[in-house]
Write a structure and sequence with these properties.
Belongs to the LysR transcriptional regulatory family. This protein is of the alpha/beta class. The chain folds into 3 domains: about 80 residues, Winged helix-like DNA-binding domain superfamily/Winged helix DNA-binding domain (Arc Repressor Mutant, subunit A, Orthogonal Bundle), CATH 1.10.10.10; about 100 residues, D-Maltodextrin-Binding Protein, domain 2 (3-Layer(aba) Sandwich), CATH 3.40.190; about 100 residues, D-Maltodextrin-Binding Protein, domain 2. The protein has 11 helices and 13 strands. A hairpin with a 2-residue loop joins β1 and β2. The protein starts with 7 loop residues before the first helix and ends with a helix.
Length: about 290
Amino acid sequence: MVRPYLPLNALRAFEASARHLSFTRAAIELHVTQAAVSHQVKVLETRLNVVLFKRLPRGLMITAEGEALLPVLRDSFDRMADMLERFENGHVREVVMVGAVGTFAVGWLLPRLPAFREKYPHVDLRLSTNNNRVDLAAEGLDYAIRFGRGAWQGIDAVPLFEAPLSVLCVPAIADELHRPADLTNQTLLRSYRSDEWTSWFAAAGIAEPSSLLRGIVFDSSLAMMEAALQGAGVALAPPMMFARHLAMGAVRQPFEIYTSMGSYWLTRVQSRTPTPAMEAFADWIATAT
């Protein structure tokens, strides 16, 4: 398709004037005179055969026709500016949009991102966190790192590693725990996956306490661990994701008893063709330690 001539100077003059509702402030932004901006807007109005502004004694008022044109131009200029900013030292910077379970993002991914940046300096990683409920297509994500069994419809899922759960708590509570049965006297913090404590107690070979049915339910391990750090109770969480807290002595793991409820997976929509930047991220995360 052959595009019609685009009066870019006139379009820029209009877009800046519409944002500022002032030819004078638009002129300052564009480094031209106020008369030049006014002239360019008039050129555009003549070309479109519409009035884009009502000229007032103190500034401008955008018309309905101008309101219709402005969002399209703003989005187009923003996208062009974003693309131009991605060029650096003769290379185009590629973007990878990744969503990750908050626990994984904070406990595993963030400490390793400098290594990714060093290996792939021209890939910009844009990270968002979630609580394992994510819609890749709706959220515009290239990848989502989530926890589970790997069965998501229409999703390509590559296993990363397991992260078994164990008991974590502050030292003051850990001092009271000499055997797993001592947990029956503690507040057990729970995630929205209701079978985790049941599975852990089965691994410990003791009966599940009735107190398990009481207490706060958290939608993420990060929030649950924050409660544990404040001494609100005992958490069941993956120690490998809280290695920093364990090393600092902020929390302790009183028992070497684990239960595995699934793995972390790198997922993408099956219809999404991987870009070179996506392939770089997938290769890196598969081998990162």
